[in-house]
Amino acid sequence: MLPVAPLMIEHRLIERLIRRLGVEVERIRARQEVDPVFIERAVDFIRTYADRCHHGKEEDILFRDLARKPLSPEHARIMRELTEEHVQARGMVRALMEATQRHAQGDRSALESIAELLAQLAAFYPVHIKKEDRGFFVPVMAYFTKEEQAAMFAEFWEFDRQLIHEKYKQVVEELLA
Questions:
Q1: CATH code of the domain covering residue 130
Q2: I want to staple 152 with a disulfide (CB 3.0 to 4.6 A). Which of 3, 46, 90, 106 is the partner?
Q3: What's the structural domain count of the chain?
Q4: pLDDT at 121 over 90
């Protein structure tokens, strides 16, 4: 199994939530109301699973190891684009949280901002995922030996194992602050 297989499997779960974001946009616009619990849970998923877990493995392991290889100009360009897209996604999520907070404080104009940001995330992720799945993950594995791929795969699993501890250590620290 290629070490990128877990990343591609993670994409399938991310896609499921992203499809639901589109449904939520329609619901918000039709009812002119926001479900703050849905937004909170969706943001937690995106921040923890899609960004910290998934993008974390890409940036902290795969891209780090690729940066040590003599990449083709095309692969180097795509890797830069993917990193920039991760930053874009973080910005959209941050803006979504800010709009949700404004809405919770009574700013009704934030409702359309929330819907628009959800729509942007729903449009962004499928394109981003397609770029990774079809044009990057599998071809860049040719830069690595079988041993390097096995080491990367093991590091992905260790990353996942540590993530749950990192997440809930942060939760406790926030609750005790």
A1: 1.20.120.520
A2: 3
A3: 1
A4: yes
b or e along 111-136 (b: 16 or more beta carbons within 10 Å of the residue's beta carbon)?
Answer: bebbbbbbbbbbeebeebbeebeeeb
Residue 144, phi then psi, degrees to nearest 5: -110, 145
Domain span at 115: 5-176
How far, in Å, CA of 71 to CA of 79, rounded? Answer: 10
Q: 12-21 burial by CB neighbour count: b if 16+ within 10 A, else e?
A: eebeebbeeb
Query: pLDDT tens-digit profile of 13-62?
Result: 999 999 999 999 999 999 999 999 999 999 999 999 999 999 999 999 99
Residue 88: both structure tokens together: 């874009």
Q: Which amino acid is at 31?
A: R
Euclidean distance between CA atoms 136 and 4, whole angstroms: 10
pTM of the model: 0.91
Q: Which two tokens stand for residue 143?
A: 């830069």
DSSP element (H, E) containing 167 = helix 146-176
Which of 58, 73, 76, 68 has the alpha carbon at shortest distance from 6?
58
| Pairs from 108-116 (Cβ < 8 Å, separation ≥ 24) | 111/28, 111/32, 111/33, 111/34, 114/28, 114/34, 114/39, 115/25, 115/28, 115/29
What proportion of the chain, given as a percentage, has pLDDT over 70?
100
